[in-house]
Structure formats: structure tokens, C-alpha cells
Design a protein that fits this description.
The chain is of the alpha/beta class. Among the domains are: about 130 residues, no CATH class; about 120 residues, Single alpha-helices involved in coiled-coils or other helix-helix interfaces, CATH 1.20.5; about 120 residues, no CATH class; about 110 residues, no CATH class; about 150 residues, P-loop containing nucleotide triphosphate hydrolases (Rossmann fold, 3-Layer(aba) Sandwich). Helix content is about 50%, strand content about 10%. Helix 9 runs antiparallel to helix 12, helix 15 packs antiparallel against helix 17 and helix 28 crosses helix 30. The longest helix is centred in the N-terminal third of the chain and has 32 residues. This is Late blight resistance protein homolog R1A-3.
């Protein structure tokens, strides 16, 4: 009877496989859904095949007839399934209604579900009764487990709840370990007879898992979902054997595997990789739940070694020879005592059974063996990877830090037993050597090696010092002070040898002149010129070329990579009105590396078709004179395309004669400052992005040149294409290249799957972006790549961004500038290079918010990972798939989930920056207290988008913290422990849906290094910080505080006493508490460094407030709102000598008439009046001819509905450039008079924008 059952089941399995292989490849067919359903049948039949064997005793009475009946019953079920398969196959092949087929199939499966579940109970009962000596066919068991694991993987779709996915994933990982462990042992010639107890145990848990997963998948009448879930949650704990006989089998098998000496074949590599992956998964579990800090560090090093070995197998399988295999065996044997995850409690038992020193010693030996192999086979997989950007800047910041640490009391105590002074002296010497070879590291391999060794040892010094300060015990020969000093001496000797060599001098000279003496050929990617859009820009440029000054002038076109600068210049260059106007024209591509002689030849060949032979023998000076001779007395147009520095112009200028005949030079660049200001005929043309219609037209021209109508397949994807390309011509070109290689019927699916990430990875785009990045100074590279730390399409507040740069150590203060000013210079430089886009300009001369194009964003993400600057994690799978490298210095999780933080423990020891973002900040609470015990070296911690419950008071452990951003939600308060962080520079509290003010603890005065303190509330700006007011006389000053928003002020108290605690503050926003019918005098002139002040009144009633202000004379920007002061109080403001920006908002002043009298606004260049009840704004008749706003450039009037009259003095204001008016319907005639008078005075450029 059993033999017929086996035959029947085997035949049914073959039919089932044929059915799966025969799915039609039609669009919208639910192949995955069908396969997932049928795979559960396959798993059951594989299990049933074993129990159809006569050798297997079913858990019934020993009566033969009863056993035969059950075999017959199992065979009958297999027959019914087998008979259903042809019917399913016929329906699948003939039906064009796929979900109707699915419905029929589910109905048939439903008829089997009850019996299958009952049979799983029978199989489990039989398995549990087997003795450890029972025969289990290993190959059959492996096939069964492969099918079961496939079910579990397919069971984790996105539609499942997170806790369900975690349960199934845990079960899957542990079953996979058992499967891979058995295959690993078999690979090492361990016989089946030696694995008996292990196979019996594994089979039992696999059957249990198969039954439960089947119930959980179909769960119709087989117990409550909660009962099934509870059973699944318990099962992983039962997978690893605890029975002595089974554990003994495992250990004996490991020993037997050590004695094996056979060579690895190609098919073995997959088994080894799978086993390493399972080891890593289970070691991860130990790390996540481990609490012993001494051994945790070594376990993490052990994990990294295993991961590197796995990568060698994956990337360099031929390198996996006997040397790699030796530590593999050692790991299994030594590690089997307490590392091997055959028992989750094994590590605790081992620590109890052995002396801690012995445990650590065994681990150290394992790690040394692994490191030796990795160093030889894969040296780039160094266990201590450091960022490749701005190495010299890092060494400088480290030296400054070492001086600060050694001079502080806490640092001196922590480092008292270590020769830090000697390390500092040696590092100063190495730094001077770095200075000598800076710029050469990319030119010479030997110099690059020295550079990397110096920077690498600097990062290890930092790690060691910071670990000692936090009290972490480091037990590693490679991370001791003495070993580092020895290494520094070796590096110094090698560096001195290179620096003293003659060839270094030649290299320095070569690098210094490389921009003038390197050929340009092949230096720039070529983009096919298809001209679309820019009609207005073209007309304006052509007008500037043909009219205006008679002197030689430059027209500058700037924009980000791929934005169409060259295309626009070419369009102008070839226009008929230009070709007919200029006598001589020349086009010259400069690029970032150029040879002046080649540029002169390029110009000459354009202006003269035939050159005499002797010209080609001329030197550089003679060629420059020859160009000048050909251009003399001619009106000429020269295009200098892709200029990277002003030296290019300086080198060529002498060849361009000025005959005052209207000659012009067009210059295209990514940088704004490459053209001398005195030569510009117009402000640089900053290219805009293409409009949606222009984007569409460009794509059509690239795919169907010369055709007006696009095929319907292209029209169908128009909207997706426009949104994806975001107006950048280069992206459109790249997308067209992708689509041109595809069948047009697949365009829709392709575009839906495409993103800027795909586009930016193409060769053409990557080359363009790489070129721009390569030319950045080292000091800017890290700042630019840091944009990859945030979610895509994010708008960045510049103050906050610069604070992050400062905290990260990318920006250092100078003797003349604060670090914030240096950071602002860096940002403006990136903007001028067209890498960063201004999204919100400040009122004058500045940027409030910025962003980068998606194309550049993806470049930043990829390059930052490549340079080991930071690692972005976009989804949980990046953790589970081990795509995150060990020990990332900066970790940025874009969509934070609960499961991230369990796994975060693995990567945390070396993390210096942790930025967490979430899309559902108000719905999830995180408990991160356990993390803070591990990430003790972190310096930047951004929690402003994730809810904390409770707020971790353990934050006081993070003594290196410089930047902390918190989400204020619910009843969470700022604990006093936050203010015990000696290095904290930036503290940001961001209100969520719970809007409230925050009382600061008394310990706030301990934050001596605090530079940026901010409360963010996107809805209501009135919420503020309440500083402790008692005992101010004995409290310390916050002398470094540069920016504070928002401070609560109560004029009934001594405001000056509080404000004097911030003697060097430059930017301040305050909320003032006032009461009606009380006279206030607000004195703020003690703030002698204040430049920007925003004051708002907390509203208690509708009455006017009686107050006077005494402002510091240093103020450059002033914003007032809600004070309801009479206009007569403007005198205190109008005479501020340095005031440049004035904003009067939301009832700041009240009254229908503002008659200006004695007040003057000598330097005000930006004025905004918004939400005021003013009707008449005039100048006193006594001072009618006075220009109250001699420097006013921009006037903004917003929601002043009653305003009818604007002062006549504005009619004669020569500096006025633009007036923006919104929702002020009654002042139109006054504006027209101003514009007419301005035109009569010759100011035709005044713009008046009314909306």
C-alpha cells in the first residue's frame, strides 16, 4: 500500500511542477499569487511522501488494517489533488479572466484544507514519537525545507502587518540556519549516520512550521489567528536543539568537519555563502539581545570578519582557498562553544562556565585568523574603513579636539594613564607631511597609500580617545596607544622618504600647472544638442549681444550640470541675427583642464579657415598675438564654453582687443564667479528648468525628430515623464536614450518603474556629475555629499543644515569668521557652482532654504556610500539583506520603523551620526533607551521626526554629542540630563501636533558650548523656551550662543539680566508677554553683537500696548508683529544706523495714517508691510522732499486692504528695483504714479508685480 502511495504522490508532485512551469506570460496574470497558493500544496505533498513509506510508523494502534486504512486515506487525498491539477491547467491556459481562475482554484483548495491540517497534526505526532536513531533521508528533508522556506519568504508581502512579518522572518531565519548547517556539515564529509539525532530534530520542527504556516496562510476554521500567531512566535525558540544527545551530535559533527581536507568545488561556494549568511543572522540575534559590554565589542568584530569572508566568497570565489578555510573551521569549533547559535542561551552558559578572560582570548584568536585572511585576500575590506573625503580637514579638527580634551578636567582624568601628548606631537608632524602632498594623492599610488595611512591612523586615534573618555574598555592590540605610536613612526619614515624624493617636486609642479598643461580631449561628456525652450533667454541674450556698451563685454550663462548651458549658447551662436551682426565668430571649449595653446588654436581655426604653416610652430605668446591680430578692427563674438575658473579668462583676455565696436564674449560655466564683474554686460543668466511643455517637446524631438505627432504609447506616459524629469534637460536626454532601446509597447511599464535613481546611474549622466564633483575642493565635498543623508526632495533650512555641517566637523571657524559664517560661505559656493538650488531666498543677500535636484541627490547618496562618508538606509530590507556595511560612521534611516532599532544595535558601536526620519511621526512611539547604552560615540543625533516614549534620560551617556534634535510630542519634557552634555552645540525642539512651549531645566546654563537653540513649530510661532530666571546672578553665561529661537520675555521682570547671559548672540527671535494698560520699556541694547531680531507679542486682548523699545544699534534685520503700537513709535526704528531689512507684520503697528517725520531709514534696502490696517502712508509736508529710503531696493505690500497712498518720496528713489503687491486693491493709482515718475527719471527697469 505504501509503495502505491509514494508513486501517486510523486506523480502528483511532477504534475504540480509542470503546472507551475506552464503559467502563461500574459500581462496582469497573477502568476505569483497562484504559485504561492500551489507551493503550499507542494510542501504538504513532500511531507506526505515520507509518511507514505512503510518504514514510518504512524501514531495509531499497531493494527495493520488500521495502518493500511490511513495509508489509503493519504493516497486518496493525493489522488484527488492529482485529479484537480489537469483541470486547473486547462483553465489557466484557456481563460482570459485570471481572477476567475483564481476563484475556482481557491474553492478547490478549500476542499483540501481541513484534511491537510489534520494530516499535519498526524505527521507531527509521528515525528515526535520517533527515536533519535530513526532514519531520516537527508535529501528528502532538504527538499522539504527548501519548499517550506520558499513558502515563508512568499508569506511576507507588504500587505502583512509588521508584527506578522517579524514572526515569520524570525522563523524563516532559524530554519534556514538548520538547513544550511546540515548542508555545511555534509560538504565536509560528515556522514548521514553521524547526523541522525540532528536530522530527526530538524524534521520535527520543520513539520511543525509547515503546519502552522499553512494554517496561518489559510486560517479558516483552524483555531483563532491569535492562537496560531502565538504558536509561531514560540516555534523559533524550539528550533535550536537543547537535548544533550542532539547537541553532542552537533559538536561531534563540527569536529569531524575540521578534519575534512577536500577541496571546494564551484557548487560548494553557494553552500558556504548560505551558511555564512545564516551564521550572520543568528549572531545578529545574539548581538541584539546581548548586554555584556566587554564581549559585545568582540562579537561585533567577529561578525564583521564573517561578513567579510562571505563577501570574499561572493565577489572573489576563486580566492576562497585553504587559508580562508582554516579560520572557517576554527570558527566552527571554538565558536561552537558559545558563539554558534545552536542555543540562544549558549553565550550566557559559556560566560558562566568559563573565565571571561578565556572567552575573550578565544574570540581574539578567531578574529586574528579571520583578519589575516581578509588582509591578504581582500585588503580593501579593512576592518576600520574611514571616509575618503577631506582627510586633511579631519586631521586639523582632530588636533584641535585633542588640545581641547587634554585641557579639560574630564579629558585629563580619562586619559591620565595614556601618552596622548606624544600622539599629538606625532600627529602634528604627520599633518605637516600631509600639507606637502595635498593634491597629489590622486596623482600617485604611493602618495595615495601614505595619505590613506595617515588619515586612517588619525581616525583610529579619534576612536581610541573617544572610547577612553566614555569609559569603553578596548581590548585590542591594534587599538592601543602604543601600537598606534609604533604605526605612526613607520608611516612617518615612509612619508619622509617620499617627501624628500626628487620626483615629488616634479609632481607638485605638475599638479600646480595641470589646469594649464593637460589636454582637454575626452574631459567632458557630450550631450546631443536638441534645442527646446529658452526662447525668452535667447532673445534677451541676443539683444545684449547686439546692443548696449561699445566696449568688450561678457555675457555669462550659468547652471547646474546638464541644464542646457552649452545648448543655449549654441542656439544663440548659430542664430541668423548673430551670424549677420558679427564679423568674426569663434567657439572654444575650455573644460576643467586645458592648455592655453590649444585654446588659442581652437579660436584661430574658427576665425580663419586656412592658417599658414608657420602658425603651427608658434609658441604660446606668438599664438596669442596672432589671435589678436586676426580680431583687430573686427566686431567679434567668442564663446568660451565650460569655464571652471577665472584663470581661463585671465589667460585669454589679452588676445581679445577692445576696438569699442560692440564685440562680445559668451561664457558658460557651472560657477557664477568665473567672469570678472567689471566685464559683465548683465547679471549672469541663471538657467531655469524646462517647463512641462518644453520637457515634452524635448523628449519627442529626441525620440521622433522631425515629427509633430507622437505615438499614443508615448502620449500615454507624458505626465509620468514630465514629473520624473523635473525640467532638467540632461535627464530628458537620458530617458530618451533608455526608451529608444525598448519596444514602445513596454514604455508604460518601464517609465512606471523608472526613477531619477535609474536615470542618474547611466554612463552619460554619471560622467557629467562625476566631473563636477571631482573639481570640488575637499572642504566642499563632504558638505555636498551630506545632502544624501536626507529624504529625497527635501527642502533644507540653511541654518539647520549649516549647524549639522559644523557638528559633523566639516566646517571650522577661522580667526576672522565664526563657523556659521564659514559654513554659509561653503553653501554659497555650492550654489554658485550650480550644485544647490535656492528654493527660498532671504530678503537680501542670503538663502533661507535650499534643495538639490533629484539627479544630484541620487549622485550624493551613491557617492557618499562609495566614499564611506555616510550610509543611507531607505528600507528595512537594507538591514536584513546585509547591504549596510559594518561600522558606518554616519547612518541615516529614511523611513524609520520599529524593527530598525533592534537591528541598529549591530551597527552602532562606531556610529558618529544617526539621523532618523519617519513619515508617520504622530502614530508610532519608539523606546530607544537601550540604544543609548551602545552608541556612546555619537555626535549628531536627529530624532526630530520620530516620537519617543518616554524620552530617554540615558541621553546623558552621550558625552560627545554636538547636535541633538528632538520631537516634542504628548507629555514629553526635556530632562535635565540633556543639559549635562559638555560638547552640545545645537539643541532643537520640534513641536509635533502637540503645540506648546518648553521650560528649560536649571542645568541649561551648563551648556557652555551651545551655539544654536531652537524651538520649531510650523503652525504657531508664539511657542517658546522659558529659561530659568531664579539665581541668574550665579548662573554661567552662554557665551558661544549665536542663534536662539524662540525666547520668552516678560518685561515685568529684569529683561536685561536675562539677555546678558547671551553676550555674543547674533540672531534672536522672542515672544514678549504684555498686558494692556501697562507701560513697558523693553531695553535690549545690551546685546552688542545682535544683527537679526524678530519680536512678537503674545496676545491677551484687543487693546493697544504701551511700550518703548531700546534696540541695539548693530541690528541689520528687524521683524515686528502683534504689538499694535501707534505709528509715532517708528522713530525708534527709523534711525537705526545699520538696519537693512524691516518687516512690519500682523498688526505690528495700528492706525490708518503713517506720516513719516524725523525717522530716516538710511540703509534699509528691503521693506515689508503685511496685514496692517494702514490706509495712508505719507511723508510730512515739512520733510516732503526728503528721501526716507535712499537705499530701498525692494518693497513688499501684502494684505493691506485699506492702503490707498504710498509716499511720494519713492518716486525719486534711484535704488528701487521691484515692488511686490498682493491683496492691496486700493493702491493701484499710487503705484502707477511711482512707476511713471521712475520712468521719467530714466529707471525703466523698475518692476511692479501685482497679484
Amino acid at each position: 500500500m505504501a509503495s502505491t502511495s509514494i508513486t501517486c504522490i510523486s506523480s502528483t508532485l511532477d504534475d504540480l511542477q509542470a503546472l507551475e512551469n506552464g503559467y502563461p506570460e500574459f500581462p496582469n496574470w497573477p502568476q505569483k499569487y497562484l504559485r504561492r497558493k500551489l507551493r503550499h500544496l507542494r510542501t504538504f505533498l513532500l511531507c506526505a511522501r515520507k509518511y507514505s513509506n512503510d518504514d514510518v510508523q504512524l501514531p495509531f494502534d499497531n493494527k495493520k488494517n488500521q495502518a493500511n486504512n490511513h495509508h489509503a486515506s493519504l493516497e486518496a487525498l493525493a489522488v484527488r489533488i492529482g485529479e484537480a491539477i489537469p483541470k486547473w491547467a486547462k483553465e489557466i491556459q484557456s481563460s482570459y479572466q485570471p481572477w476567475k481562475v483564481v476563484h475556482h482554484l481557491e474553492k478547490d483548495l478549500g476542499s483540501f484544507e481541513q484534511e491537510i491540517c489534520e494530516w499535519y497534526v498526524v505527521f507531527l505526532g509521528s515525528s515526535s514519537r520517533q527515536s533519535s536513531n530513526s532514519v531520516v533521508r537527508k535529501d528528502d528533508l532538504m527538499e522539504f525545507m527548501d519548499s517550506l522556506l520558499e513558502n515563508l519568504v512568499n508569506f511576507r508581502p507588504k500587505s502583512r502587518l509588521a508584527h506578522q512579518v517579524r514572526l515569520i522572518k524570525a522563523l524563516e531565519e532559524k530554519l534556514a540556519f538548520m538547513k544550511n548547517f546540515i548542508r555545511f556539515l555534509t560538504l565536509h564529509d560528515v556522514e548521514n549516520t553521524e547526523l541522525g539525532p540532528l536530522l530527526v530534530h530538524t524534521e520535527a520542527v520543520a513539520i511543525n512550521a509547515a503546519g502552522l504556516s499553512y494554517k496561518f496562510q489559510f486560517k479558516k476554521g483552524f483555531g483563532s489567528p491569535e492562537d496560531i500567531k502565538e504558536s509561531i512566535s514560540e516555534l523559533p525558540q524550539k528550533i535550536f536543539p537543547v537535548e544533550p544527545q542532539v547537541l553532542e551530535t552537533c559538536m561531534q559533527a563540527l569536529i569531524a568537519s575540521k578534519l575534512s581536507r577536500q577541496s571546494y568545488g564551484d557548487t560548494d561556494e553557494h553552500i558556504l555563502r548560505d551558511f555564512y549568511h545564516s551564521l550572520l543572522c543568528n549572531l545578529w540575534e545574539i548581538l541584539k539581545h546581548g548586554t555584556c559590554p566587554v564581549i559585545l565589542r568582540q562579537l561585533q568584530m567577529f561578525y564583521e570578519g564573517l561578513d567579510s569572508l562571505r563577501n570574499i566568497l561572493k565577489e572573489k570565489p576563486k580566492e576562497f582557498d585553504e587559508k580562508v578555510r582554516d579560520p572557517t573551521r576554527v570558527v566552527k569549533c571554538y565558536g561552537g562553544d558559545f558563539i554558534s547559535p545552536l542555543s540562544l542561551n549558549a553565550i550566557k552558559d559559556a560566560i558562566q562556565a568559563k573565565d571571561m578572560d578565556i572567552v575573550c582570548s578565544e574570540l581574539s584568536e578567531i578574529i586574528k585568523l579571520i583578519d589575516a585572511v581578509i588582509t591578504e585576500k581582500c585588503p580593501e575590506s579593512s576592518s576600520f574603513n574611514f571616509p575618503k573625503t577631506n582627510g586633511l580637514g579631519f586631521v586639523d579638527s582632530l588636533l584641535k579636539k585633542m588640545m581641547d580634551v587634554t585641557s579639560s578636567e574630564a579629558g585629563s582624568i580619562a586619559l591620565i594613564d595614556h601618552p596622548i601628548q606624544k600622539v599629538q606631537e606625532e600627529l602634528v608632524c604627520l599633518r605637516s607631511l600631509l600639507r606637502k602632498i595635498v593634491g597629489l594623492q590622486n596623482e600617485d599610488e604611493e602618495v595615495q597609500g601614505i595619505w590613506n595611512r595617515i588619515v586612517g591612523v588619525a581616525y583610529r586615534i579619534e576612536f581610541l580617545i573617544d572610547s577612553l573618555i566614555t569609559g569603553n574598555i578596548i581590548d585590542s592590540s591594534s587599538m592601543s596607544i602604543h601600537s598606534i605610536l609604533a604605526e605612526m613612526n613607520i608611516i612617518k619614515a615612509a612619508a619622509l622618504k617620499i617627501c624628500d624624493s626628487e620626483r615629488l617636486g616634479g609632481k607638485v609642479k605638475e599638479v600646480t600647472k595641470r589646469f594649464n598643461h593637460m589636454p582637454q580631449e575626452g574631459s567632458k561628456p557630450i550631450v546631443n544638442d536638441v534645442v527646446v525652450g529658452f526662447e525668452d533667454e535667447t532673445a534677451s541674450i541676443i539683444n545684449g549681444l547686439r546692443h548696449g556698451s561699445c566696449q568688450v563685454k561678457i555675457v555669462s550663462i550659468v547652471g547646474m550640470p546638464g541644464q542646457g548651458k552649452t545648448t543655449l549658447a549654441r542656439k544663440v551662436y548659430n542664430s541668423s541675427s548673430v551670424t549677420s551682426y558679427f564679423h568674426k565668430r569663434a567657439w572654444c571649449t575650455v573644460s576643467q583642464v586645458y592648455h592655453k595653446r590649444n585654446l588659442l588654436f581652437e579660436i584661430l581655426t574658427c576665425i580663419e579657415s586656412k592658417l599658414p604653416e608657420d602658425v603651427f610652430k608658434m609658441g604660446e605668446e606668438d599664438l596669442a598675438l596672432e589671435v589678436k591680430r586676426h580680431l583687430l578692427k573686427n566686431r567679434y563674438l567668442i564663446v568660451l564654453d565650460d569655464v571652471w575658473d577665472i584663470d581661463a579668462w585671465n589667460g585669454l583676455e589679452a588676445s581679445f582687443p577692445d576696438d569699442r565696436n560692440g564685440s562680445r564674449v559668451i561664457l558658460t560655466s557651472r560657477l557664477r564667479g568665473v567672469a570678472p564683474q567689471d566685464k559683465l554686460d548683465h547679471e549672469p543668466y541663471s538657467l531655469r528648468q524646462l517647463t512641462p511643455n518644453e520637457t515634452w517637446d524635448l523628449l519627442k524631438l529626441k525620440l521622433y525628430p522631425g515629427q509633430d505627432l507622437a505615438p499614443p504609447e508615448l502620449c500615454e506616459i507624458r505626465q509620468q515623464v514630465v514629473e520624473m524629469c523635473q525640467g532638467l534637460p540632461l535627464t530628458v536626454v537620458i530617458l530618451a536614450g533608455i526608451l529608444s532601446r525598448m519596444d514602445r509597447y513596454g514604455w508604460k511599464e518601464a517609465v512606471e518603474g523608472l526613477s531619477s535613481r535609474n536615470v542618474s546611474s547611466t554612463e552619460q549622466c554619471t560622467a557629467t556629475l562625476e566631473l563636477s564633483y571631482k573639481h570640488l575642493p575637499d572642504t566642499l565635498k563632504a558638505c555636498f555629499l551630506y545632502f544624501g543623508a536626507f529624504p529625497e526632495d527635501r527642502e533644507h533650512n540653511t541654518k539647520r543644515l549649516i549647524s549639522l555641517w559644523v557638528a559633523e566637523g566639516f566646517v571650522q571657524k577661522t580667526h576672522l569668521k565664526r563657523s556659521e559664517d564659514v559654513g554659509n560661505d561653503y553653501l554659497m559656493e555650492l550654489i554658485s557652482r550650480s550644485l544647490v538650488i535656492v528654493s527660498k531666498p532671504r530678503s537680501i543677500d542670503g538663502v533661507k532654504a535650499c534643495r538639490i535636484h533629484d539627479l544630484l541627490y541620487e549622485f550624493c547618496v551613491t557617492k557618499a556610500k562609495e566614499e564611506k562618508l555616510l550610509q543611507q538606509v531607505r528600507r528595512y530590507d537594507d538591514f536584513s539583506a546585509f547591504t549596510v556595511p559594518c561600522y558606518p560612521r554616519r547612518l541615516c534611516i529614511i523611513d524609520s520603523k520599529l524593527e530598525h532599532f533592534d537591528n541598529l544595535r549591530l551597527f552602532s558601536p562606531a556610529i558618529r551620526s544617526l539621523l532618523l526620519f519617519s513619515h508617520d511621526e504622530d502614530s508610532i512611539s519608539f523606546d530607544l533607551r537601550f540604544i543609548f547604552h551602545i552608541i556612546k560615540l555619537v555626535r549628531v543625533l536627529d530624532l526630530s521626526q520620530i516620537g519617543l516614549d518616554p524620552f530617554p534620560r540615558e541621553v546623558e551617556l552621550l558625552v560627545h554629542l554636538r547636535y541633538l534634535a528632538i520631537l516634542g510630542r504628548g507629555k514629553i519634557s526635556l530632562p535635565s540630563s540633556v543639559c549635562n552634555l559638555p560638547n552640545l552645540e545645537t539643541l532643537i525642539w520640534r513641536n509635533s501636533s502637540t503645540h506648546r512651549s518648553v521650560s528649560l531645566p536649571d542645568t541649561i546654563w551648563n551648556l557652555k558650548k551651545l551655539r544654536h537653540l531652537q524651538l520649531i513649530d510650523e503652525v504657531d510661532k508664539h511657542y517658546c523656551f522659558f529659561f530659568p530666571r531664579h539665581n541668574l546672578d550665579n548662573s554661567s553665561q552662554l557665551r558661544d550662543l549665536d542663534f536662539l529661537s524662540c525666547l520668552s520675555l516678560d518685561p515685568e521682570e529684569n529683561i536685561s539680566k536675562l539677555l546678558r547671559k547671551f553676550p555674543n548672540i547674533r540672531k534672536l527671535r522672542c515672544s514678549v508677554n504684555l498686558k494692556p494698560d501697562v507701560q513697558y520699556h523693553v531695553v535690549m541694547d545690551c546685546l552688542s553683537q545682535l544683527e537679526s531680531l524678530s519680536l512678537s507679542c503674545v496676545i491677551y486682548g484687543g487693546d493697544r500696548y504701551q511700550l518703548d523699545f531700546q534696540f541695539p544699534l548693530t541690528i541689520k534685520k528687524l521683524t515686528l508683529s502683534y504689538f499694535r503700537m501707534p505709528w509715532s513709535k517708528m522713530a525708534a526704528i527709523g534711525n537705526l544706523p545699520n538696519l537693512e531689512v524691516l518687516k512690519l507684520l500682523k498688526q505690528a503697528f495700528e492706525g490708518e495714517i503713517w506720516e513719516m517725520e524725523v525717522e530716516k531709514f538710511p540703509k534699509v534696502c528691503f521693506l515689508k508691510l503685511a496685514s496692517l490696517n494702514i490706509a495712508k502712508w505719507t511723508a510730512s509736508s515739512e520733510y516732503d522732499e526728503q528721501d526716507y529710503f535712499p537705499g530701498l531696493q525692494k518693497l513688499v505690500l501684502d494684505r493691506c486692504g485699506a492702503l490707498q497712498e504710498i509716499p511720494s518720496c519713492l518716486r525719486n528713489s534711484s535704488a528701487l528695483e521691484i515692488i511686490e503687491v498682493s491683496k492691496c486693491p486700493n493702491c493701484t493709482s499710487s503705484l502707477e504714479e511711482i512707476q511713471e515718475e521712475q520712468r521719467s527719471n530714466g529707471n525703466t527697469d523698475l518692476k511692479i508685480l501685482i497679484s
